[in-house]
Design a protein that fits this description.
Strand order of the largest sheet of chain B: 1-2-5-4-3-12
Order of helices and strands of chain B: HHHEEEEEEEEEEEE
Oligomer: heterodimer
Largest sheet of chain B: 6 strands, antiparallel, barrel
Number of strands of chain A: 0
Radius of gyration of chain A: 16 Å
Distance between the termini of chain A: 12 Å
Number of domains of chain B: 2
Number of strands of chain B: 12
Largest sheet of chain A: none
CATH topology of chain A: Arp2/3 complex 21 kDa subunit ARPC3
Low-confidence stretches of chain A: none
Mean pLDDT of chain A: 88
Strand content of chain A: under 5%
CATH topology of the largest domain in chain B: Thrombin, subunit H
Structural class of chain A: mainly alpha
CATH class of the largest domain in chain B: Mainly Beta
Amino acid sequence: MKEIISSFVILILGGILQGSLFSRIHILNGTGDVIMVMLIVWSLNPYTRYSWIWLLLGALIMTYLSALPLYGYFFIYGIIWLFIRFLKSRFWQMPIILMIFVTITGSIISAVISYFVLYINDISPNLKTTVTQIAVPSLVLNLIYCFPIYGLLNDFANSVCYKEESS
Amino acid sequence: MNNVKKNWQKIVAILIISGVIFLALSGFLTQSLSGLIDPIIQVQKWTAERIQTVYEFFTIPRDVTQLRAENQALQEQVSLLQTEIIQLQQDLKEADILYSLLGFARGRPEETYIAAAVIGVDPSPFLQYILIDKGSDDGIAYNMPVVTEKGLVGRISAVTASAARVQLITDAGSLVNAHVVEADADGVVRGSVTADLTIEMVSPEAELQAGQIVQTSGLGGNFPAEVVIGQILNVNKLENELFQSASIQPAEDFSNLQAVLVVANFRPSNVEPLE
């Protein structure tokens, strides 16, 4: 129960920070996706049980904040969450390496789906510009964000979920 | 006579004292007195210094505690005043923005404006949208144009009861019919995923030059006419092309938007049935 309540609180705070702060921080035209990084960290933690709530609520918040059509964030976060579920059972002993790997993969998935969604909405951005000006800078920002978020959120998840599991 | 004989000693004493006082007041005893007083003053000084040292030994710790408390109180007061200064500076900044917006609104009395604060930016780096703190409860409706004192910002793309989403003119999906004043040429201003603005579909006969002002033409009925969009930066003109294009420097700095005006009495024309 504590995990569910804390998930709501953290995600809403994360959504507010994403919309008001992190979306304004740029490298070239790229911005970081803090909610995605939080979803990755929470899903990778061995004690969390309700990471699917993070997927649904995180995607819902981002869909509210963003004009990305066709519920793009449900696809992006859904694929990343399934990818983590697939990897977690195989490489769970190396959470930090797995987090870096999933952050890189998640950023690429996010860029590819965003590009595809824009493409089917009759907007065809230049591929080279998209990669150099948006996708790679966003990936770098996500990697910068992932370490402090891992440090904070993983410890918090351990303190909330490990006790809950043991009790 | 008997009294004088009886009290002669007292009379002599009074006369001597009076004489001494008279001599002292006249200055005749100064050197003699200083010789007598100086050692007393030295002793007084020595004693006073020792007493002061002893007094300080007992009282300074108390003063330090008192000074520390006073210092703490003053530091708190300084922090409070600094916070007030920051708050006042922010208020001043907001007031400046609002005065600018008010000036712009006064310059166009035919239009009704709703002022709104920018409360968020689209998290997707592929899209150029902002969130504002006014919604349908405040009279905001879909497709209303959004401006600032500097120029065109975009249009309302989604509305909730208390907030709205604005598609900036720099968004890749944004198209604005525009007019280059100095060249007397029409075109279409298009955004991009990198937030760059370009005016396209300009007749090759038009003499586009860097620095020329681009403003809305009002064609299509989506935006009011004569709202500044920006200035031409570079002209791309090829001999065999049907049209020429040019990159535009937007009049507004979209990365630092804080407040906007929604043109409330402008109803965009729906030309879809004619297409």
